[in-house]
Amino acid sequence: MSNDSPFHDHAHAAEFDRRAARSDIRERLAERLIEAMELRGAETVLDVATGTGRFARPVSRHVTDGSIVGIDEALAMLRVSQQPDAESIPRYERIAADAQHLPLQAGTFDRAWVAFSLHHFVSAGDMVMETRRVLKPGGRLLILDPVILAADDARDAEVDGLINEVFQRSHGAGFRFFTVEEIRRLMTGAGLEVVRADCHTYTVDQDGTEGIPTGRHWVEVADELERRPADLRERFGKRYFRYEKAGDSLHISGGFHYGLIAGEKRPGAGS
Among residues 29, 106, 131, 267, which is most buried (max CB within 10 A)? Predict the structure, then answer.
């Protein structure tokens, strides 16, 4: 994450937390993440890019005899999670740190997860490699992130390139959405064995973007496509969503896709 990321701004961090708290999609995905962790209750768990702790909170209910360490380099996000009116998270410690250079000992954690943050890392591969280092043998890393669909042809690839291009305008040049298969390759490239790779699609048919993670920026992509050839707009509508504007009102219908990929550090596989 670059230093000019909006997540370093307190007002942006507070607004992000407010929206995350009201997202049914995030809540349902948190349940999927916890199920994939296969927790027994005594694990030591690492929350990479913990933000305001929105995923740490439900996970903490399943580590009643364990602990969670949340790391994030955005101090504004950490401070929002520590405000007096914020709900406390039991067995949860926050550390300000760069996920690509973790100030943690090797072989420390039973589980680690990265939720809704992979797309912000300038070097996602380095982050995965570093997280693998701090896992115990048999430990598991889970990545949960919005994903783009694998391209079937050049037109699909053009649509997906435009999605990343528009998001980079507000989130920086290092921003990138991956496909599920690309995340699998990040895992295997870091020496993890992929034990699960799912794509969850949540359909919406609603007015406005409330509850849709990064919904406003997805609408910016659709707006940009209004200036592009009609077949690109049609392809985007089939792969993602369609929208209608009438004055200040906005209606969205379609699907948003999220990858959940788990990689395991096999015993004897090295540091």
Answer: 131
Contacts of 5 (CB under 8 A, 6+ apart): 74, 120, 171, 172
Tokens 């300000």 — which residue?
Answer: 96
Nearest by Cα to 33 from 159, 196, 171, 157: 196
How many angstroms separate the CA atoms of 111 and 131, rounded? Answer: 10
**How many other C-beta atoms lie within 10 A of the C-beta of residue 96?**
13
The DSSP letter of residue 56 is H
β-strand partners of 249: 246
The 10s digit of each residue's pLDDT in 190-236 is 999 999 999 999 999 999 999 999 999 999 999 999 999 999 999 99
Which residues, including other chains, have CB under 8 Å from residue 2's CB and lie 6 or more apart?
122, 172, 173, 174
Nearest of 221, 203, 222 to residue 212 by alpha carbon:
203
CB atoms within 10 A of CB 13: 22
Q: What is the pTM of this model?
A: 0.90
